[in-house]
Amino acid sequence: MKPMLPKGEGAGRAIVRHSAIISLFNGLGVLGGLVLDMVMAALFGAGQATDGFFLAFTVPQFIMLVLQSSYVNALVPVLTGLREGEPARAWTVFSRLLNLSGLLMGVLAVLGWLSAGRITALVGAGLDPSLHGEVTWLTRVLFLMLPPLALAEVMRAQLNALERFAVPAAANVLRYVGALATLLAGYRAWGIRALALGYVVGALLQAGLSAVAVAWVGGRYRFSWSLSDPDVRVAMRLFAVRAGGIGLRRSGLIFERFLASFLPAGSVTALSYARRVSLALFQVFANSVSTATLPTLSASAQAEDWPALRRNLRLGYRLLSYVTWPVAALMAALSVPLVRVLFQRGAFEARDTTLTAALLAIYALGVPALALVELLLTPHYTWRDARTPTYHMAWMLGANIVLAWALMRLSGAYGLAWASTLTALLSMARGYWLLRHLGGLDFGSYTARVVGAACVAGLAAWGGWLLAGHLVETGSAVGALLASAATGTLGGLLYLLAGQWLGLDEWPRLVQWVWGTGGARQAIGDER
Prior knowledge:
The protein has about 525 residues and is mostly helical. The chain contains 20 helices and no strands. Helix 2 runs antiparallel to helix 3 (about 85-115). It starts with 7 loop residues before the first helix and ends with a helix. The model is unreliable at about 1-10 and about 515-528 (pLDDT under 50).
């Protein structure tokens, strides 16, 4: 039985509606993560203690990012097909995947606990030897968050296959709430160790909320094991290949932290804060659009409806491009006031702001490319082809390692940030090339127009910020917030005007989708 496939305007409106829901909760999750980072910066500043925490977080964070980037894309195509044809069996397969994932991550957590000392010695090779014991303790605790996170991701995949997106996205908010509450309650007694414990508490809360959501939609869990189940084997094979590819790409983070451990104290922290703020844009928009389009693209691929696949891929690309490029340009232009507002208080000083803001401006320029690569690789998974993305990730890792090693020798922490951004831009270009056989995508000219309009917005915001510095007091957080809000609004308005002049009419199209007006072919952009 072929899956029911939304047609025309219905598919486009569904993608936009689901993207908006996921973006809302992802935005709240990102806000929670930023608040957690703000509290951490105020309490501990940017020095050896925070460098030690981020080095301890490196490998558990790497595994966490691989899980979050792999489970949904690998499992949703399998679970979506079962949902349409064999709904009862879909819950059996889900249960088996849940049990297997929990077991695998439990074993990995134990191995991480036992090898924490060796991990610290490797990742933090340049760290002060007096900190190795503390970093090892933090690493052990952070590995404990992996089993509940794995269970939460399998449940998120099943809920997304059922086109239930809100609660899985909201669960991320709960994770940060748990971490923040634990940090505030325990930092006086445990110092930065309270934050590591908080991540474990948050992961447990996220898994608990996901379990409630699965039960709410009528989920039927079975304590069942079967490695011979063909659907389980397909799903886990897709996950393994997907995780391998994502792992290759994310390995750049480990190499970056390794190199940064040899830089002056505070460099690891500044790089981490800058990367996390810049990736907030990726987490809100890229994950939402990719997640919302995956079931539709999977259904299109299974129904062999290639015009629908091209149409919805084009839609997702334009949605991401239209939003991420101007926001990235504004983030780069206003990096100084942004970091000042977010972090400069308590133990986080002005010199920390200067370094972090410069790194943020560099990282921000590569975030749209990272977001678009995520979308451009999605069709390969809908075809159950994980080999092509894996080779692509290997290529990306190699480029990142070469650039990071060379550029760090030239400009220290700034070189590491430039290596990440340049790798992302090269990866986006190659991701587009890998889809050349689809034809009719026309991404090149559209990207050029969006980037041109985004440059107008960024230059206007940057000039406005410089002018504001001469007219009002921008040294305080409040002054910086008001000035950046005003100049950012100016840049945004100019982006809309420049976009209209360049033929970027996604804004009125978004309004049409949200309110259910406008023709399907015009709304989806099928005639352009």
